Amino acid sequence: MHGPVGPVAPPDITPARPRDWSDAEIARAIAQGVSRDGMRLRPPMGFAHDAWMTGAEMAELIAYSRSLPPSR
Hints:
Strand content: 5-15%
Order of helices and strands: EEHHH
């Protein structure tokens, strides 16, 4: 993916990577752009556009993402 600063690789948000993350940690990463270790996530994570989700919508998104096979 090409961003304003050149090529970037979006983080893998399928179950291959965040399987050890709690739902709250995943929700924070999606809605606030903060990773599990407290570091800020950079674009192309769409956190600026995902913060509007309700708690129920976020829970559904996380449940759906956990149902997917890893992308690897």
